[in-house]
Fold this sequence. Notes:
Layout: H1 2-36, E1 44-56, H2 58-63, E2 70-88, E3 91-101, E4 107-118, E5 151-155, E6 160-164, E7 166-172, E8 175-181
Antiparallel strand pairs: 1-2, 2-3, 3-4, 5-6, 7-8
Amino acid sequence: MAKTTTRRAVTVIVAVVAGILIVGSAGVRFVALPALRQIPANLDTTVHLAGTADLMDASALASGDLTKAITPGVPVTVRERIHTVSTAGPTAVIDDDSTMTGPDQATLTTTTHRWSVDRTTLRPGDTSAPGTEAHDGLVVGFPLAPQPNDYPYWDTTTGTRTVATYQRTATHTSTPCTPAAR
């Protein structure tokens, strides 16, 4: 009889522990994970790009020589720093600083934008955030959990919305990457 009582006690203890683990895992899945899957308050990343650009020659324009107004294939590098300025609930205020340099490291353009974005979808966030620019699309990247569909993209140069069209899901070093857009 003592063995039966001990077995029942062990069964009850194991069942209670299993129940606690199930409730705990549900909490992690539905509470902790969504809270962690968002732009962090300390985001600070820099992207370096290199290539060529067709640039306008201001001196040729000023002299009226329109045949030399565009200089094709100028080697350029771009340094873009994206960092979180502040967060409040689902909204992050992001600074997007970009500098393009040409031959001899001469600075060609410098831009600074301050965006309010949703911390998960990266779509426009709270528009009342002070000092932020209005935009109607993605400005600092794709959502943290992108889906295989089209996304609105904000072209900062023209100040217009366009569509980043979903084309396919691609794999890079055995990791699925979605979306591949153009």
